[in-house]
Amino acid sequence: MKYQVNEKGYYGEFGGAWIPEMMFTNIDELKTRYLEIIESDEFRKEFDQLMKDYVGRPSPLYYASRLSEYFGSKVYLKREDLNHTGSHKLNNTIGQILLAQKLEKTRIIAETGAGQHGVATATVCALKGIKCVVYMGALDVSRQAPNVKKMKMLGAEVIPVHSGNKTLKDATNEAMRDWINNPEDTHYIIGSVVGPHPYPDMVARFQSIISAEMKSQLKEQTGNEFPTRVLACVGGGSNAAGAFYHFLDDEQVELIGVEAAGKGVDTPETAATLTVGSPGVLHSSKTMLMQNTDGQITEPYSISAGLDYPGIGPLHAHLHKTGRAKFLSATDEEVLQAALLLTQKEGIIPALESAHALAALNKIKMNPEDINVVNLSGSGNKDMETYLDYFGY
Amino acid sequence: MKNRINQLFETKKENILSVYFTAGFPNLSDTVQIIQELEKNGVDLIEIGIPFSDPTADGPTIQHSSEVALKNGMSVKQLFEQLKEIRESVKIPLILMGYFNPVLQFGVEAFCKKCHEVGIDGTILPDLPLEEFEEHYKDTFIKNNLHNILLITPQTSEKRIRQIDNVSEGFIYMVSSASTTGAGKKVEDFHLDYFERIQQMNLKNARLIGFGISDNATFTNACNYANGAIIGSAFVKSFDKNVTIKKSISSFVKHILLHA
Ligand SMILES: Cc1ncc(COP(=O)(O)O)c(C=O)c1O
Questions:
Q1: What was the pLDDT predicted at A249?
Q2: Could you tell me which residues carry N6-(pyridoxal phosphate)lysine (chain A) (predicted)?
Q3: Residue-averaged pLDDT of chain A
């Protein structure tokens, strides 16, 4: 259990709850109650049932034979793109909505970048009949119109955020401000393994269903529950945390996280936090950040709005620091080509985010007998416009 | 030398007016003049805001001023440079208020030292929680005769208030209601039961009420329940391009202190 969070909410030197006093009561309530609630039989029963019948789990572990042939090594895809709403995000929002109910909260807030987490949150609020408010950068609102419309149809109120760069970071600030202003009735469903303790641990636990299934599916399909390596893209890092979780202490399994290089890590247009970042405190957590020497946060850039974040979950900062996981990055260009490759070899159009994980297959040395599991975190439905523009179909 | 915050609260027990402004706003080089004019017009205590790109505990007014200040080129380094000679002209206590990351990047120890050097008496760092402060930084603050002011809110439990009172020196910052910063509350909006509850706790520290204090009525009302009050957004909003800073500050403070 070397890589688990400690009592104070730290992974090594990263994590904690750097919250203003105005958030203390809410965070304290969560911190003291989340484990007891999510480990209770009643919670497990409802969570498992919804995972199976509503989300559509287990998601398949698919042996991609044409892709394997292309790379000369065995490639498996964990099909999170087949979950209801099209990504891994629903695993977490189902968990948190059940928790919010147990905490007797009557109003949900969330932040969203591309809109995937916003849609997943609006979905569970519809499912449970709970009021939902989603903050979204004004720029993202205009870039991701179909997801905005989906959230509205699901009954959520979408509030465009005009501060800062009008993207995910600013939406997160605004959601935190909302929580400060509504401490009694509201639960904040954070969309990744970021934010104050206990969020990184709580979200990782909800997403850990990914690696739990991987293990048993690999055992069934290959006779061995341990792959050679697991690859996943990293924005905040929730799908990667879920894909790594049950392998963290099995050091023979190589863990690879892939960040968005954007136009390149040596350009100002990048979101590769671990490559260009340094330790700091943002959104109530001590982690690696993109910032200037004065501690002001740098605006990130990536073609995939879901990876467009200047920080990273504290677990990943720790895995990076200790060397337990390796972190690579892929440029927009490499990612688009990887997406096209998967589409034409396997008939699966991946989310731009997930294509980052695929792009890493070109960057590592693989042996023919290796078992590579790529976490395909989401479907490309939301990204069709970008693909069509770029490839000119 | 004795900390100026303690001196203030020993000589004046009520109607203390503390004013917050964002350093570097409206113009980069206004800092010193704003401080001097506030003192001249009878303000008792000043909170100098260090702008941050992501001020999560602030409402639109301070967010906007921070954005402008950063664009103007304000930084922790620049601010210390501007404050280098402030103690030659200003006597009242000065507090730096800001978010933790810029302080962390400057280096907490270097920051505290620099505060001591230029004559800063305290800090307010909303996202540096009590626990982290006590465990890692308290000794460095004490060594530099710097008071780190902690916040309480209507939701803070009695046990935690006692804890905060124990660790605090100078005064306790009472957040008027569960909210981000922002002016324009009416007297009726205040949770008087919360004000009374805290008043009856007989804390060892003085208390100032902040967040939402914007005019003479809200200021006077807050003063009935604490040693004084803090005005931020309303002051930041009051700068008028068509009036000199001198005039703008004197009319603002007059308007607040009307009958006090
Ligand atoms: C499909 C998909 N994958 C990955 C991510 C990145 O988030 P995380 O790193 O938290 O999994 C997102 C975020 O919106 C997403 O929509």
A1: 97
A2: 89
A3: 97
Of B101, B153, B160, the CB nearest to A281: B101
Is residue A117 a part of any domain in this protein?
A: yes
Q: Which domains does chain B have, with CATH numbers?
A: 4-256 (3.20.20.70)
Contact A393, A349 (CB under 8 A): no
Res. A197: pLDDT tops 60? yes
Both A247 and A103 in one domain: the answer is: no
Q: Is residue A129 part of a domain?
A: yes
The pLDDT assigned to B189 comes to 81
Please name which of A264, A279, A281 lies closest in space to residue A317, comparing C-alpha atoms.
A279
A12: closest CA of chain B, how far (Å): 15
Q: Which stretch of DSSP H or E encloses residue B189?
A: none
> Is the pLDDT assigned to residue A164 strictly greater than 90?
no
Would you say residue A3 lies in a domain? no
A108 Cα: distance to centroid of ligand 1 (angstroms) = 20
Q: What is the sign of the dihedral through the CA atoms of A41, A43, A48 and A50?
A: positive
Structure tokens at A78: 């964990």
Same domain, A365 and A312: yes
Work out the number of other CB atoms within 10 angstroms of the CB of residue A116. Answer: 26
- Is the model's pLDDT at A82 over the cut of 70? yes
Residue A165 clears pLDDT 90, i.e. is over it: no
Asked whether this complex has an ipTM greater than 0.90, the answer is yes
Last residue of a domain, one of A198, A222, A238: A198
Q: How far is the CA of A303 from the centre of ligand 1 (A)?
A: 13
pLDDT at A143: 84
Which of A7, A18, A178, A188 is the best residue to mutate to test the B interface, defined by the most B CB atoms within 10 Å of its own CB? A18
Query: Do A71 and A175 share a domain, yes or no?
Result: no
Q: What is the mean pLDDT of residues B101-117?
A: 98
**pTM across the whole model:** 0.97
Q: Which amino acid is at A275?
A: T
A294·B127 Cβ contact <8 A: no
Best probe of the A interface among B56, B104, B128, B163, by most A CBs < 10 A, is B56
**Considering only alpha carbons, which residue of chain A is nearest residue B161?**
A21
Which residue in A202, A203, A204, A224 sits closest to A214, CA to CA?
A224
Whether B155 and A183 lie within 8 Å, measured CB to CB:
yes
